[in-house]
Amino acid sequence: MIEIRFFAALRERVGSDRLAVSPPDSVDTVAKLVAWLETDPALAEALAATPRRMVAVNEVLGSEDSTVSPGDVVALFPPVTGG
């Protein structure tokens, strides 16, 4: 199982702050995980509304190319800006 945590506007669009999923073994990167999540119409709509996002795997900033495996915690959140 992989735990996905959603933050900020993405959390609001998904309607939850976390989701536990068991993707197929072929899902071994964040990009593949997101593509797999997008097979759910509601998640696809929420993720499409935030096409630019930051990623952390096990609390370490990463990218869509970061590897994932069962037991990981993947955080998805909009880019952070300041001023």
Give a brief description.
With 83 residues, the protein is of the alpha+beta class. 28% of the residues lie in helices and 25% in strands.
Report what the structure shows.
The chain has 83 residues and is an alpha+beta fold. The chain has a single domain, classed as Ubiquitin-like (UB roll). It has helices at residues 8-14, 30-37, 41-48, and strands spanning 2-6, 18-21, 54-57, 60-62, 73-77. The chain has a five-stranded mixed beta sheet. The protein is globular. The termini are far apart.
User: Any idea of the CATH topology?
Assistant: Ubiquitin-like (UB roll)
CATH C-level category:
Alpha Beta
> Alpha-carbon distance between the termini?
38 Å
Strand content: 25-35%
User: Roughly how many Å is the radius of gyration?
Assistant: 12 Å
The shape, in one word, is: globular
Given as residue ranges, the uncertain stretches (5+ residues, pLDDT < 50) are none
Mind telling me the CATH superfamily name?
Answer: Beta-grasp domain
SSE pattern: EHEHHEEE
Number of strands: 5
Count of domain modules = 1
Q: Report the CATH architecture.
A: Roll
Helix content estimate: 25-40%
Category from helices, strands and their pairing: alpha+beta
What's the main sheet like? 5 strands, mixed
Spatial ordering of strands, largest sheet: 2-1-5-3-4
